[in-house]
Amino acid sequence: MHLTVRRLTSLLAATVVSAGLISAVPGAPGVADARSCSNSGTGVPIPIINKLFPRGGSPIGPQKQMPAYDHGGTKTIGWVTGPKSRNHTFGRFGISGTDVGVAWDNGRGQTLMAFGDTFGNCLTPDQQWRNNVLLRSNDRNLADGLSLSGRGYAREMFNAIGVDGVEKTAIPTAGISLGGKQYVNYMSVRAWGPPSRWYTNYSAIAVSNNNGHSWYTPPNTIRVNAGITIPVPADWPSFQAGDAKFQQSAYAKGGGAESGWVYQYGTPNGRFGAAYVARFRPGDILNRSRYQYWNGRAWVGNPDAARAIVRGPVTELSVSWSPYLNRYVMLDSPRGVLLRTAAHPQGPWSPARRVAPASLELYAPMMLPDSPALRGTGPELYFNASRWEDYNVLLVRTTIRR
């Protein structure tokens, strides 16, 4: 570990950063080079090349036209982010390139979306790079694309030290609304490693009481990626070997017989590990002593006992209950976008069905809460997906089968 518990605690306790869409500041985008920045310019905070190109390749360049795909029930609908998107995110939010797009309902019918490493104006010394940003949408009809709400330079949700080998960035991996508050699970990335591998310090939960305009991280939600178990006081970050299995996450509210539970799916850092699952009551999201973990036979209180529910490699996940299917749906993207279903949160999960080919170069498929399949009104499932070459997020629709 490069960060002590004391340093982690003091850093995170001070992390209350505005995420509101405020008025543009000096240096915000105007007439400029509106492209996703490669890692060749001065002041680029992260070497994104290994993150984005698992098989090698060139640094990302300007955003291109949306890749057209319509086959087997899956169709690309339109760019969500980037200068070529219908949302014109470079001019409106200072976003020329970003990824992830974790999406959830804020409890009042609005969709919140948390994005990862974000670039703005590539001609500025720092390329207007941010660790993460939050955008909002009131669009309930996704058939013609996803429209974003608001305007103004998108600020970071929460910061990071920004030093390679210490803490390079902080990336959202899951989001959920419970009891009128917003919760985002994120990973603190220590360094980018070989393609499709990175190394985390910890994962943690950031909380917002004001619909995502500001965030704070309770230190007791930190899962240190230490691979060992050390007893610590209840209000300290956790040192448990099993916490390494929950460095990246997906949240799903229980449906059917599991209503009243929230499920947290976890994977280790990178795109190589298996998937695990924990559950908790909505009011206990910040009290990890009340979490239960699936050990292959029963729900138990020890994260070290968690057993894989899907064998690796499992990449960035999203999981939701589908009233249309009366089953849980899981998306990830190790070789194209894969879809699995299960009658219960812990499985057994069906064999993966490829719903988008590897040739589209999509990753981090994040389901949209207003999908008919998740509302119980139809078979259409919409998801955000990031694209390697363009380093931006597009909307994809697939049809799920009963």
UniProtKB/TrEMBL annotation:
A Pfam family the protein falls into: DUF4185
Family annotation (InterPro entries): DUF4185
Keywords: Signal
Domain of life according to the entry: Bacteria
DUF4185 domain segment(s): 85-397
Signal peptide region: 1-19
Protein's recorded name: DUF4185 domain-containing protein
Species per Swiss-Prot/TrEMBL record: Gordonia hydrophobica
Taxon lineage: Bacteria, Bacillati, Actinomycetota, Actinomycetes, Mycobacteriales
